[in-house]
Amino acid sequence: MIVLLVPDLTTKKCVSCNAKDMRPMTVEAAHSLIPQGWNLVTEDGMMKLQRTWKVKTFMKGMEFFKLVADVAEAEGHHPDLHLVAWNNVKIEIWTHAVGGLTENDFILAAKINRLDLHQLLSRKVGE
Fold first, then answer.
1. Total Cβ atoms within 10 A of residue 115
2. Following CA atoms 100, 21, 30, 75 in sequence, which dihedral angle do they give, to the nearest 10 degrees?
3. How many helices and strands (H and E) does the chain possess?
4. Contact assessment for residue 61 and residue 54, using Cβ atoms and an 8 Å cutoff
5. Is a pLDDT exceeding 60 seen at residue 2?
6. Do the bridges between strand 46-54 and strand 88-93 make them parallel or antiparallel, or are there none, so unpaired?
7. Rounded to whole angstroms, how far apart are CA atoms 116 and 28?
8. Model-level pTM?
């Protein structure tokens, strides 16, 4: 059995996206870092991280965004936040400055994964 060790990105800090030598990562590199629950998507030739959640109410969606915004602001790296049909939350993360994914995106996704969101989320059937 092959075990892939994914680094604990929650211990890292996002770096400035203004570095001239920062480049978008390859698909292979992105797949090696993808956090649990996130999907790698390509839109208009640009790779992004994407994840969706279903929240209990519209206001729980706003609370969800506030928690994510606090993490994003602390990291200086800001995702695209979408609230669709009152209770469907979608987050897209990519480094706009390079037109693709960098380690910053995976750091932010990992930190979002560590948020305690269960009180905001709808329960799935069978839970």
1. 13
2. -80
3. 3, 4
4. no
5. no
6. antiparallel
7. 30
8. 0.88
